[in-house]
Design brief:
Shape of chain A: globular
Radius of gyration of chain A: 21 Å
Strand order of the largest sheet of chain B: 1-2
Radius of gyration of chain B: 23 Å
Largest sheet of chain A: 11 strands, mixed
CATH topology of one domain in chain B: Histone, subunit A
CATH superfamily of chain A: Amidase signature (AS) domain
CATH class of one domain in chain B: Mainly Alpha
Helix content of chain B: 25-40%
Distance between the termini of chain B: 39 Å
Strand content of chain B: under 5%
Order of helices and strands of chain A: HHEHEHEHEHEEHEHEHHHHEHHEEH
Oligomer: heterodimer
Largest interface: A-B, 70 and 49 residues
Structural class of chain A: alpha/beta
Number of helices of chain A: 15
Strand order of the largest sheet of chain A: 1-3-2-4-6-5-10-11-9-7-8
Helix content of chain A: 25-40%
CATH architecture of chain A: Alpha-Beta Complex
Shape of chain B: flat
């Protein structure tokens, strides 16, 4: 078995049976990370020595039947906007490029406590603002399927690490699609949990009413296991919620989808979608029907406004959240001729273009005279969008859509045209606007590039979307197809 | 909504950001195209619709009103991240001058 490409489930089984060691899995992942550092560039910091030491300790525990959890000894990569003691947390921004994590994010603390091996930090768009992982101060991450292309974003590094084999599982964060879209474009599974399911303590906030941390993995089951390890109420995040018994994940997943009602939103299957993406997604829907699901058309009448709502609310929250990066308490200080001069210089030179554009958009939407027209109106339309989903969920148990209307585009193609980049988020943002859970699972290739199928569930009903995604994944049997071509690595 | 470079300057001031001359012009175009796109929201009938701040119905999450001390290591780590300091104090430019 190629340990760098093994699923979490296979790694856990192998470690349990002492077929191989954590050290061997960690070495296999580190070898891939090192080999591809100059090409795909998934990582911005690799903690090789620390990871090897932790793996040896995990192996000693395993041999003595003292494993801390099933995840003991499993290598995991963490997006570089989550605090992790022993590493820098840069959010891919010049303004905090040398910031050493002073404490652990709750998700990191939980994984550390479970014995997982923290391999390092993965690349992202600056402060997670982007759909391509191009705006990183560390330089872009490239798609292992084609190095000329973007991996998606903003959790591009995490998706690439899982796709190429430099981590068994990874954590991403998703504000408008930042876990699901790169997962789709790299041919792996990405799950955005329900808003409130996972603590965001220690995640650098982008848009607080939308942000959520979630798993990137090689299989649906792997994503479910990782979610189980990180979820739950945290006193340090007052928006996290106590999980009710009915919200727990099952130990075993049903194979048939008999009795599951799946909705196809008619508003989503319209112009703008790559025809090959559409045919791949329609093929997956036919497979869901074969598995016994009842597929019916649903309507989300306000869907067309979701992107506009998102691009008002998100920048507004960004402008407030990033006010803390002012050169005063942490990060880079560029002294000006006055206090305000210091703010403007530190922020002007410390933030990249896209971050400044979003801060300015948000500041404008919240400014005197424009607040009602933009921010307040967007909050009202937000409710209409959420009510559309509630209405649809009266008739169906989950909703299926493409994850992205297009496959991975060329690096640089949309870099200077923010609006065209934003349009690629069309199928993912409404999920964050409504706070729902959604998963992207690979459903084939279009012109040799991965396509993702998105399943959207009711609040806290991750169980239904994971069940449907798992049944689809098993029936479709795409694992061999979804391996990025190894030859592309040769320089 | 088309922004002028003067409006961009005003927003940059509110945002406490410095811009280069080139960005001033470029941002005016780019921000205008996004604003034109989101202007479509004005056409949505929202009469009687309550604004939705939060996707989950959570209100007034209270914690115990007790100080939770920071451990010495974390405190030291946070102080170490100050851009400029004098002892344990954060050094800043004068607010009034």
């Amino acid at each position: 078995m190629d340990l760098s490409k093994a699923t979490l489930t296979e790694v856990v089984a192998g470690l349990n049976h002492l077929d191989f060691s954590s050290r061997e899995v960690v070495d296999a992942c580190l070898a891939v990370a090192e080999k591809n550092a100059g090409t795909t560039h998934a990582y911005v910091q690799v903690l090789a020595a620390e990871a090897r030491k932790a793996a040896d300790e995990a192996d000693t525990r395993r041999r003595n039947s003292l494993a801390k959890s099933p995840l003991d000894g499993v290598p995991v990569a963490v997006k570089d906007n989550m605090l992790m003691v022993g590493s820098r947390t840069t959010a891919a921004s010049a303004i905090i490029a040398n910031y050493e994590s002073p404490y652990d994010a709750t998700v990191v603390r939980k994984l550390r406590g479970a014995g997982a091996i923290l391999l390092g930090k993965t690349n992202l768009d600056e402060f997670a603002m982007g759909s391509s992982t191009e705006t990183s101060v560390h330089g872009p991450t490239r798609n292992p399927w084609d190095l000329a292309r973007i991996p998606g974003g903003s959790s591009g590094g995490s998706a690439v690490a899982v796709a190429e084999g430099s981590a068994t599982i990874a954590l991403g964060s998703d504000t408008g699609g930042s876990i699901r879209q790169p997962a789709a474009m790299c041919g792996v599974v990405g799950l955005k949990p329900t808003y409130g399911r996972v603590s965001r303590y220690g995640l650098m906030a982008m848009a607080s009413s939308l942000d959520q941390i979630g798993p990137v993995a090689r299989s649906v089951e792997d994503a479910a296991v990782l979610l189980g390890a990180i979820e739950g109420r945290d006193p340090m995040d007052s928006t996290s919620v106590e999980l009710l018994p009915g919200w727990a994940l099952p130990d075993k997943w049903p194979e048939s989808l008999k009795g599951v009602r799946i909705g196809l939103p008619k508003e989503y299957f319209v112009s703008g979608m790559d025809p090959e993406v559409e045919s791949s997604v329609r093929g997956a829907v036919a497979m869901l029907e074969l598995l016994g699901a009842e597929v019916k058309e649903v309507s989300l009448p306000h869907a067309e406004h979701a992107l506009a709502v998102y691009y008002v609310l998100m920048p507004s929250e960004v402008s407030a959240n990033l006010a803390r990066f002012d050169g005063i308490r942490y990060g880079v200080r560029k002294t000006g001729d006055s206090l305000e001069g210091t703010y403007r210089k530190s922020r002007g030179e410390g933030f990249g273009k896209e971050v400044r554009r979003r801060i300015m958009l948000g500041t404008y939407a919240l400014s005197s005279g424009y607040y009602d027209a933009y921010y307040l109106q967007a909050l009202k339309v937000r409710r209409l969008i959420a009510e559309d989903f509630n209405q649809a969920f009266q008739e169906v148990d989950c909703i299926v859509t493409p994850t992205s209307p297009v496959t991975a585009w060329n690096i640089g193609e949309k870099a200077d045209d923010p609006l065209s980049m934003y349009l690629a988020d069309i199928y993912t943002v409404s999920v964050n606007v409504a706070g729902l859970p959604a998963i992207s699972v690979p459903c084939g290739l279009a012109k040799g590039l991965p396509v993702g199928l998105q399943l959207i569930g009711k609040h806290f009903d991750e169980k239904t979307i994971l069940t449907a995604a798992k049944a689809y994944e098993t029936a479709a049997g795409l694992r061999a197809t979804m391996q990025p071509p190894a030859t592309r690595y040769e320089k | 909504m088309k922004l002028t470079p003067e409006q961009v300057d005003h927003i940059a001031t509110l945002s406490r950001l410095s811009l280069t001359d080139e960005e001033r012009v470029r941002f005016a175009e780019q921000l205008s195209s996004v604003l034109e796109y989101v202007d479509a929201l004005a056409k949505v009938d929202t009469a009687g619709v309550e604004p939705m701040n939060h996707s989950i119905a959570l209100m007034n999450v209270f914690g115990a009103d007790e100080p939770a001390p920071c451990d010495a290591a974390t405190r030291a780590a946070l102080l170490d991240r100050f851009p400029e300091r004098e002892g344990d104090l954060l050094k800043v430019k004068a607010v009034f001058s």
